[in-house]
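By way of example, we now present a protein record of this kind:
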Amino acid sequence: MAEARNAIDLYYLNKRGARLGPSYDGYYTVTLSIPSPSTLASQTTHFFYRLKYSLLNRLWPASPTTVLAVMSGVSYFTVTAKDESWVRTGWLAEVLWKADTVAGVLNPFHPMFPTSFRVGYLASAAAFVGMLGIVSVERLLLRGLLSWQGWMYGSSKLTTLWGAGVKLLTGKKNLTYAFNLCLPNLPVPSLSATCDRYLDSVQPLLSDEEFENTKKLVEEFQNNEGKKFQRILWFKHLFSSNYVTEWWEKYIYLYGRTPIMINSNYYILDAKTRPVMDQVQRAAGLIHHFLRFKDLVEDEKLEPMTIRGLIPLCMSQYQRMFGTTRIPGRECDELQQNSSRHVVVMSHGHYYKLNVYHGARGTKLVPYTVEELEQQLELILSHSKRQSTKLPVKRKLISRGHRIQSFEDLVVLDQMNRTNSSENTAELSSHSSMTALSVAATAAMPPVKRSRGGANIAAFTAGPRTRWAEVRELYFGDGVNRKSLHTIETAAFIVNLEDTHYASMGQRAHALFHGHGGNIWFDKSINLVVFNDGYAGLNCEHSWADAPAVAHLWEFALLNELIGFQTKTKKVRPNADESGDGISPLASDEVTESKKAPIPNLVVPRRLLWDIDDELQVAIEQAHAFSSQLIADLDLHIVEHADYGKAFIKTTNNSPDGFVQMALQLAYYRQRGQFDLTYESSMTRLFRFGRTETTRSLSASSCAFVRTMENPESSKDDRIKALRTATKNHAILNKNSMTGQGIDRHMFALYIVSKGIDVSSEFLNSALSMPWRLSTSQQPQDQTPLRKQLPQDVAKGFLSPGGGFGPVADDGYGISYMVLDEYIFFHISSKVSAEFTSSESMGIEIKRALADLASLFN
C-alpha cells in the first residue's frame, strides 16, 4: 500500500504546467498542460489591460492627457526655438545630443532623420522624464505627509496645515489604486514598546506572582533572542511594503488545516426590509449590481476609500474580490484568481454556468441587464426543479483504483466489497451525530449508482483542508469532474437560489453562515444566497480580504437596488452571443419557459455534470455528516437593541465603539464571573497592503469600570467617570493599533522569525497561546455616498444588521456588532459543547448592560 500511495502522491503532486506520472517498465508519463487559444487570448488581453492601469498609476497624479500636452508643448517650443537659444545650446541640450549620438550607433536609420525630427523627439523624451520626476516628487511629498499620524490624536494648527497639504496633493477623481504607491509602509514598533504594552494588557488577568513571572520572561526575551528577532524583522521591513501581511495571510489563513466553515468564513445579512419578494427578480438585480461594482474595480473607477474624506486607505484588497478561490492543499492552501465572465448558480442541488457579459473575448464586456438575468435565472430555476425529481440511473461500479486516503475509507472499501447490491437504502440525516466511522459504514450500503447531479459536493469545502485536498486530487483531477470544478473555481462568484425561506434574522443568519453543510461553496471569495421570499445575504471566504471590502460591495448593491426601485429607471444593454464550452447545455425549448417574452442572443446556461460513483458518494456523505456535526455545535444568537444607538451615545460624551466595548466587558463579567483577554479587530489600511491589528479591549481602566458598576456603593458620578476614563483609554488603544503601534501583529511576526531560524522563545510561546475568549469586531457602514440619493424616510428605514463570525476560542464568544443611529445589532456565536457559554444568555446580559449604561445619563 505504501508504494501505491507514493505513486499516487507523485502523480498528483503538480497539476499546473506539467505532471509526472508513475513508472511503467522504466518509462515515466509526462503530461504538459497547454492553454487553449481562447484562454491564451484572454490572459494576454488581461495582461495588457493591467499594464495600462499600472502605467496610469505610475503617472499619477498627472493624467496621460497632461503628460502628452506637456510633451507636445515642449517639443513644439524646442523645435521652433532659434539655434542660438539656451534650449538648443545649453547643457541639457548637449546631454541630449550625446545620448542621441550613442543611440544612433545602434540605429542604422539614424542618419536619415532630419535635425528637426531629432530635436522634437529628444525634447519630448526630456519632457516625459521631467514629468516623471515631478510626479515622483509629488508622490514622495504625499507619502511623507501620510507617514505622520498625529492627526488621529488631536487637532491643532499643525494638523490644519497638514490637512491642507494632503488635500492639495490628493486631488479629485482618482483611480482606485492611485494612492497605493503613496501610502507609507507599516512601521515596526520598537521591541521595548511592544513588550511594555503587552505587560499592561495582561496585568489585569494575572495574579501578582504570575505577573512577576511574566515580567521576568519579557526581560529575558528583550535581552536575549528578542534583539535578534527584531533585527531580522527590520531587515524584512526594509525590503517589503508590509512586514506582516504576507505572513498573516499565509500562516493564519492558508496554512490552517481546520474547516473554514464557521471557523474562518463569515456571513452578512440582508437589510431588515427587502425591496422585492420575487426570488428571481431580487437575484437578477443583485447580480447586476455586483457586476457593476466588479467593472468599477477592474476599470479602477471606484473612488478610493478615505477617512474624513481626506486621508486615503489602501485599496489592494479589492483586487481579489471577484474570481478568487481558495484552492485546498495537503499542507497549505493557495489563492487563485481568474478574470471571469461567468458566475455559477446553485439551485436544487445542481450547478449551472451562467455567462453574464456580452461581447467577444478581447473586447469591452458589457454586463447583462436585469431583465436578461431574470430570464436566465428563471430558466435555471425551472430546469433544476425538474432535475431534482429525477432519480440517478443505476450503473455498474467503475473502480477508480481505490485511491483511498484515510482509515475510514478503508473500512468503507471493505464494506463495499463484502456487501451485495441490496435495494435497501440508508439515508443520512443532515443533522446526524454519528461518528465519521459509522457514517462511512452506513453510507456503503446503497446500491451502486452514478450521478450527474452535484448535491452536497460543496460539503468538501466545509471540512478539514487536507482531506478536501486529497479528495480533490483523487476524484476531481480529470474528466468531467475536473471540468465542472474548474468552472466553479473560475467563476466571478457563486449564486445560490435557495428553495426555502426563514421567518427570523437568526434563522437566515444560520442559513447564510453554514447552510445545511453542503450547499455553500466555502472556498469561493463570495457566495450570494437568495431565498425564495426575496431575502438575500452573503457567505465570504476570509483569507483574501477583510469584511469591510465586502461590506462596501454589499452596501453598493443594496443602495443601488433601492435607488433603482425608487426611480423606476433601467438601462438597456446591447446583445451579443458567445460560443459554449460543451458543458451540458439546457434544452433549447426550455428557454421559452421564462415568464416574459424571451430575449434573443443570450448564451444558454449550462448545467455542470459530475461523475459520482460509489466511492465518491461515500466521501460526499462523510463530508456532509462531518459538516453537520460542526453545525450542530454552533450556538448563534442575534440581538436587536432598539432602545438607542449611536445618536444617544454621542450625547454622553463617549465614543460609540468604546461605549459598546465597555458594555461587552460588563456583560461578559456578569455572565462568566471573570475577565478574559479581549480581541477587537482594527484596520491598518492607512499603510500599504494593510489589513488588521488587534485592539486589546480589556485593560486596567475597563476592569476598573466593571468593578465600579458592580459595586453597589459606587455613585452615579463614579460610574460615569470610570466609563469615560475607560472609553478614552480604549480610543487611544484603538488609534495605536490603526497607526502601526499595536502589539499582536508585531509579536506574531517575531514568532514567525523565531520559527524561521529555529530558535524557540518561551515568552512568545506563552504570549501567543493565551486564548481570546471574547473576540469582537465592529462592522463598517456608510462606505458609499449613495444613501444621500434616497428620500430621507427611505434612507432612515434602510437598516442593515451586518453579519457575524464564529468563536475564536472553543470556550469563548465571537461577537460582531453594527452601531446605527437608533439601533445596535449584535451577532453572538459560541459552541454548544462549551460548558460555560450561552449565546442567548450573553445576549440578555448585553441588553442589560446597555440599559444600565443608559440609566447613568437619564
The chain has five domains: 2-34, 38-170, 194-248+742-770, 266-302+317-632, 634-739+772-858. Residues 1-19, 391-449, 569-585, 587-594 have pLDDT under 50 and may be disordered. The first helix runs from residue 2 to 11.
